[in-house]
UniProtKB/TrEMBL annotation:
Highest taxon listed in the record's lineage: Eukaryota
Organism name: Oryza brachyantha (malo sina)
Name of protein: Uncharacterized protein
Annotated stretches, region: Disordered: 249-270
InterPro entries: Probable_transposase_24
Length: 287
């Protein structure tokens, strides 16, 4: 057990609980993710055989190594080692850890060391002669060297180096969300947070340029969006104005028809009245 985890147990009186999320390669909580990765690293360095490739752990020589590692690591935490999501997450962490361990072994005991010295010194501590021989055979293979050179060129072409350290992006986003009243950070805020060096007090020139460009792009999108909304609002107002004009026209037409109908009725009444008066005076004259 690592010193940090041991102090946690002494301070709290219980093991650290680890929460796993289906589909995530790491626990969302940064502290849980850090401690789990640390314990996986300790187990890899001290107990796990380092194969030349991950697929080797499915062969008879290595197939018990990963399940045994997960069981051993789970005993140090409050977690269910038989849970499918937990095992998948631990497997991903161990897979990354083994790759890092191969890189450390190669950097320290193989790179820039004459091959005669590599063979004469034998394997590094806690690495079996059999596993070391397979690793050396892989590293001296011309195809492997060619792949390494291509990867080196690709790494040199990376412009935006993140500053989140060993934390995964998932943990970094979760941490920002917790510190921002449980609101998910947008892409631009996260880019700034993950590429800003607190030590230097700034971002790299390339990252700064990309950040400014993202802000410009966002501003352009917002302006285009506002223009689109303004256009939609103008069309809506024009449509409403047309509807109001049409309603007024129909109302006026109804009023005109009503007035015409009333005038016709009044004309009819006046005509009847005139006829009655004419008949009245006709009868008067007859008498």
């Amino acid at each position: 057990m690592g010193h940090g985890l041991e102090k946690y147990v002494q301070r709290t009186g219980h093991k650290m609980h680890i929460s796993f999320t289906d589909g995530k390669r790491r626990p969302l909580d940064p502290t849980q993710a850090s401690k789990l990765a640390s314990e996986c690293g300790i187990h890899i360095r001290n107990h796990l055989r380092v194969a030349t490739h991950w697929k080797m752990y499915k062969t008879n020589d290595y197939k018990k190594a990963i399940p045994a590692a997960i069981t051993s690591i789970a005993e140090k935490f409050d977690m269910n080692a038989n849970d499918e999501v937990a095992r998948a997450t631990c497997t991903n962490i161990i897979k990354d850890g083994i790759r890092q361990q191969r890189y450390r072994l190669k950097s320290k005991y193989f790179n820039n060391v004459p091959i005669s010295e590599v063979l004469s010194k034998g394997p590094p501590p806690r690495v079996s002669p059999e596993d070391w021989a397979k690793l050396v055979e892989k590293w001296t293979d011309p195809k492997h060297k060619e792949t390494c050179e291509k990867n080196k060129i690709n790494r040199e072409q990376v412009k935006f180096h993140q500053t989140t350290g060993s934390r995964s992006y998932v943990c970094a986003i979760h941490s920002m969300k917790v510190n921002n009243n449980d609101q998910e950070p947008d892409a631009i805020d996260f880019f700034k947070e993950s590429h800003f060096s607190k030590k230097k007090g700034s971002m790299s020139d390339d990252a700064q340029e990309a950040y400014v460009q993202e802000l410009r792009d966002q501003l352009r999108v917002e302006k285009d969006d506002n223009a689109r909304k303004q256009h939609q609002l103008t069309e809506q107002l024009e449509c409403q104005q047309q509807e109001i004009t049409e309603l007024k026209r129909k109302h006026q037409e109804e009023m005109d028809n009503l007035k015409k109908s009333q005038d016709e009725k009044m004309d009819g009444l006046r005509k009847k009245q005139d006829e009655m008066e004419a008949m009245f005076w006709f009868f008067i004259r007859q008498q």
